[in-house]
Amino acid sequence: MKINTKYHGEIDVKSEEVLTFEQGIPGFGEEKQFVLMPLPENEWFHILQSVTTPQLGFVVTDPFLFFKEYDFELDQASVELLENPTEKEVQVLSILTVRETLQESTANLQAPIIINLANQRGKQVILNNNQYLTKHLIFAQPAGKKG
User: Residue 38: helix, strand or coil by DSSP?
Assistant: First the structure.
């Protein structure tokens, strides 16, 4: 099927590439289907693009690339909604707020996106862990600055 996207224009998407978010994404409850697309020439960042709304595309990344100590446990309801994936079937993503300079960009660690790669089901989970916030600098110390 053809979809229009925020960053890639019109693209062809295979039905098996579509991720289903049964409950939508908080703030976008009506958006149930997304595709994950790489950013050209960038292996760290991807676009989580709505299938139905061209202007809705979230910049996402693997939070473990930037936050080695990031750790949380999924609640049982989320595990069941995702149909009980094994640890190897799970992909974790964080939505980024991209700023004018990359050093000021932040990741939302309080609400990771969990994808079951085995069945293409996704869910954004809100963690009740107050050590994680919605805005963590992805680059802790900007280059060239002394701490």
Answer: strand
Q: pLDDT tens per residue, the chain (147 residues)? A: 999 998 889 999 999 999 999 999 999 999 999 999 998 788 899 999 999 999 999 999 999 999 999 999 999 999 999 999 999 999 999 999 988 887 899 999 999 999 999 999 999 999 988 889 899 999 865 444 443
Give the sign of the dihedral formed by CA 17, CA 18, CA 22, CA 23: positive
CA–CA separation, 62 and 117 (whole Å): 14
Q: Are 113 and 98 in contact (CB under 8 A)?
A: no
Burial 118-146, CB ≥16 within 10 A → b, else e: eebbbbbbeeeeeebeeebebeeeeeeee
Structural domains of the chain, with CATH: 2-137 (2.30.290.10)
- Token pair for 140: 């802790």
